[in-house]
Amino acid sequence: MLFQDLGARKVVADFGGGMLSSDSGALLLRQIDQGLGLSRTLAQCFEDRRNPDLVEHSVQELLAQRLQGLALGYEDLNDHAQLRRDPLLAVAVGKLDPLGLNRREEKDKGFALASPATLNRLELSAKFSDRYRKISPRPEEIGQTLLEMGVRCLPKDSEVLVLDFDATDDPLHGRQEGRFFHGYYDNYCYLPLFCFCGDVVLWAELRTSDRDGSDGTLEALQAIVAALRKRFADAKIIVRGDSAFARDALLSWCESNAIYYCVGLARNARLEEKLDQAMAKASERHCLSGAPTREFVEFEYQTLKSWTRSRRVIGKAEITGQGRNPRFILSNLGNEGLLAEDGSKLLEGDRQWIYEELYCERGNAENRIKQMTLDLQCDRTSTHWIASNQLRLWLSAFAYLLLERLRALGLRGTEMERASMGTIRLRILKVAAQVTVSVRRVYVRLCSAFPLQELFRTCQQRLESVAAG
Question: φ and ψ at 63, to 5 degrees?
């Protein structure tokens, strides 16, 4: 192929560069996967009824290929029609024949990894179990594995654990199973429920949208608290969420089990009346300064019908250039805050701190869901059946966990320690390399002009100890 000349030089291109890869960062993901045992543990949640003598791709290899693909930005199964030729991806998956030279069928030679059709059968096996789909997932075990792996990733010296619950819309792709219209989102969608502890995902449950936004949260919280207590017997647990989670059953369970909560509360006329004096005071200050002003008050409040008892409400009376902005939250944290066993203070308890520092931090959970959606395409739930779409959601959650561990363990203290998953993929994982496979080694020559070489080296060295463990 001839391109425009460069001075006296001809610019010529062809496809004779040999075995190249644009995803050398898959080697870092392999270190994380091996260190955590993620794909190995996940594979144990599947039943494989295939004839072992005919199997070329184990369940662990299929799952590793799918998770690596998601983490590298290949959310479509069709992408694997060409990715299956990538020798570095084959190395990351654990293929002993990364060039695919020893495949049984002549048509498969040169393709080390599984085809899109094979991966599709794996995902659809969540709905079907027949002669064509002989790998069956056990959904309860997969959800429990995600929870246990997430708990393992939390710092072992944690004294306070904040659980962020949130729901989001997942628009449907046609007339799928469980199709309902949601008035708030003005769309036909699923309504998945997520729970994060810090940056770590603990729960990802696909639900139909014909329900309350908090439906299933109590059951999820009971499972999460049980898993946390096994590792953090004395840690204080705080449940955080928006007003959709201010439900009596959830709050009562927290109160009965020494769990703290800080959730939003939808405003109404009775609540706003409680803010009249504070709003007048804030308005007076706003008139004098012209700047946004706010006052905080707290009071006991009980709904007319839905709650079984009164609870502590913190109200924010705010005046901005756009007018009144009353807001309310619920919390069972006392004014003394949270105290450790030795009497030292873990968290403040005054109303302004609870609202501004504790509750407002809840917005970061939405950022994590955005990364799950925009960077890992967890909304690519486009099969017809809910069961297989739930499996896809779980796979995206495990891929998120891979990248989160890469960031937490390999990039801590660097300029990328708070980067989004998409930025990490673009700057760390998308590295060009030439791959040479011999009898003795797989030699990967990374791009000499790669601008983040030292950061890549630092990350690799840190993850080496994780893989060794």
Answer: -65, -40
